[in-house]
Amino acid sequence: MTYKNPIIPGFYPDPSICKKGGDYYLVASTFEFFPGVPIFHSKDLVNWTQIGHCLTRKSQLDLDGIAASKGIYAATIRYNPHNDMFYMVTTNRTKIENFFVYAKNPAGEWSDPIRVNMPGIDPSLYFDDDEVAHYISNWRDRSVHKAGFLMAPISLETGEFLAEPKPLWGGIGQNAPEAPHIYKRNGWYYQVIAEGGTEHNHMVTVARSRELYGTYEPCPHNPILTHQNQKGHVFQGTGHADFIEDDNGNWWAVFLGFRQTHQYFHHLGRETFLAPVDWVDGWPVINSSKPIQIEMNVDRVNDAQQEPIPAYSTNFATWDFNWLYLRNPDEGCYEFTPSGLYLQGNKHTLSDVKNPAFLGIRQNHLTGYAECDLEFDPTANNDEAGMSVFYKFDAHFDVFITRIDGQNYLCYRKVVGDIFHIETKLPINTSKVTIKICAAPLVYKMYAIIDGAEVYLGQGLTRHVSTEAHELGFTGVFYAIYASGNGSKAQSKALFTRFERSKGE
Are 505 and 368 in contact (CB under 8 A)? Predict the structure, then answer.
């Protein structure tokens, strides 16, 4: 069997996986973006199709005022065979803390949240053979070194604990222990966690016990996955794993990692990877203890042929799963029509920690391009609309049309930390432009096509929109279309009629 990593490229971190029959389902984190928690389906573990989101209503996901990289942290998805129901448990870091939702059909609507009264992050559910559900997060007695994560049986109807939470295992003593998952195999309970922080020292560790609430023995070979000593490897930060057993009795791990460009820099975000898990002397071994590769050659029989991710295009007649809003959308800003998307800016800008008129699609390859057709003829000074390479409020590159002192201009702007720089400002006499952004691992180049002529506008270094160049963040770069009135509601609507994203060679 041969396949390529990452199996889901772009900003899809903290993957969690479950299985019902021959169908696999996977979710990922979304932080300040809406809808929350994308859900994917697969028949073979290497080809994944998004089928929806778990959190699609404000009653499930309130993101008002959420800071960058807050909001929805790591989610866990589990199938409960005892009641034929799917559960997704997660954390809204700023609002209601930990909660879970459930659905009979994972591609349909999920329930309103059921709150769990336990702090911590990265919660998980475990359904034991006796049909009892158990809840665990990374909450522990932080005054005690390596204190165990707390777990307790829980009511799936009310979210209330059915007994006092008890500590299990808290890791090998590395930084930021989190993401506990419980599995059972051959009479052993296994607790798999992440340690080291979700940066270059990220890792996966494991312990086991004969009893669910017993004493857990750490694996003598911990960590069972890390790239912390693979300085020159393109993949870094591997960790935060979830395990699954396939129909042939083979075990697999999905986990996050990122592709570095400049050494120590990455901008696409943390992505979803896959590796085989073998069991040696009762302990899990990921990828034969070897580094994770782009081309994975696995000694397992599987007829799956991994399909390349196709180019993407839309005419914006309707919204689709690929696009996210920045926090809960201001509904009055968006009008999807057969002619395209009419976007009317509110008072917020991309540099505000608010909900501007914004739709973003993840950049999922290091090389390639994105382009959109825009019709915009602003009649009020400072109204603007365009396309952005957007990481967060203080890290974005924007190509846009605006009106200044009664004249319309095509501009290219860089926002990097507290630096706000308009690099290009061209007067234009047309309302129709095509904006094109060409991506390479180290640089973006910005172009516009005006009256059939291509105009070069400037460039931006990818490290200026990377995680490492700013206060620690957990997201990745989007190609975003947007509009803004820059302090007041825009007087004119922008019309986006086409968008295309394609991988480079």
Answer: no
- Kindly list the catalytic residues: 14, 178
Q: Is 424 left (phi over 0), alpha (psi -120 to 50) or beta?
A: beta
CB 368: neighbour CB atoms within 10 A?
18
Report the C-alpha gap between 219 and 226 in whole angstroms: 15
What are the angstrom distances between the C-alpha of 129 and each of 85, 113, 153?
A: 15, 25, 13
Q: Which amino acid is residue 354, in one-letter code?
A: K
pLDDT digits (tens, 9 = 90+) for 181-232: 999 999 999 999 999 999 999 999 999 999 999 999 999 999 999 999 999 9
The CA–CA distances, whole Å, from 293 to 3, 58, 379 equal 10, 40, 53
pLDDT single digits (tens) 370-387: 999 999 999 999 999 999
- Output the pTM of the full model: 0.97
* Rounded-to-integer distance, Cα 398 and Cα 234, Å: 28
Helices and strands counted in the chain (H then E): 0, 39
Going by C-beta distance under 8 Å and a sequence separation of 6 or more, which residues neighbour residue 323? 359, 360, 361
Predicted confidence band at 505 (pLDDT cuts at 50, 70, 90)?
low
